[in-house]
Known about the structure:
Elements: E1 7-12, E2 15-20, H1 21-54
Amino acid sequence: MAACKNTVRLTGRGGKSLYQVDQQVKFLHLQAEVESLWQQLQVLKQQRQASQEAKVPASTVTVAEE
């Protein structure tokens, strides 16, 4: 008797595809890791920008007068 592989049917733009469950789980973990790394990158960019803005000398900052 042949072993049955668990599969999940996903619908995408190109139609239907079959993915083994373990492959889908690996993909979802990688997707979550990418999202986490993206968020960390955004935080680091914001911190760097704030740090650079704090280092700008007051003489170079222009203030609009009313």
